[in-house]
Amino acid sequence: MVPQRCQWCSTDPIYQAYHDSEWGVPEYDAQRLFEKLLLDGFQAGLSWITILKKRDRYREVYRDFDPQFMANQTDNDLLDLLEDTGIIRNRLKVKGARQNAQAWLRLSEQTDPGEWMWQFVGGQPLINHFTSISQVPVKTAEAEAMSKALKKAGFTFVGPTICYAFMQATGMVMDHTTDCFRYPVLSGAE
């Protein structure tokens, strides 16, 4: 029997694997949070499945999203990336990734960036109990606060909608709907 998944999840095996094992699972590792923040920024204006299909290539070209490596990329390195068909070849997004890596390193000098990110939800996942995808917001006050703080810290491609998608992806917010097979485990109801 096919498990009941959230309505947004298609039949694509890559999407289903992401939904079943990653989306909504609390992530505390700063390196993985950095990766997911950048991937959500790359998604702007595109579908998430597009990013998932390019994620492995992003991991290659960014050396597993090493912020030091990314922050030190030259303008010529960025031009080379714009020729890589395995990633999203958007000039602003490629340049923004370097800018975000530099901002992440500055943030890391002041605090633990993982803990800093989790502060916007009080350090623990916010558990929602939506019965339908139509109830799930595209942004919240917490996402707006995160967006404002990230922009102040020098990040780009971090609007409130991107921040909310990031919060969902990293389990800061648990938005699996109540009919989804992942809901009981991730909501603590099981």
TrEMBL record:
It comes from the Bacteria. Its EC number is 3.2.2.20. It catalyses: Hydrolysis of alkylated DNA, releasing 3-methyladenine. Keywords: DNA damage, DNA repair, Hydrolase, Metal-binding, Zinc. Gene3D superfamilies: Hypothetical protein, domain 2 (1.10.340.30). GO terms for molecular function: DNA-3-methyladenine glycosylase activity; metal ion binding. Hydrolysis of the deoxyribose N-glycosidic bond to excise 3-methyladenine from the damaged DNA polymer formed by alkylation lesions. This is DNA-3-methyladenine glycosylase I. It comes from Halopseudomonas laoshanensis.
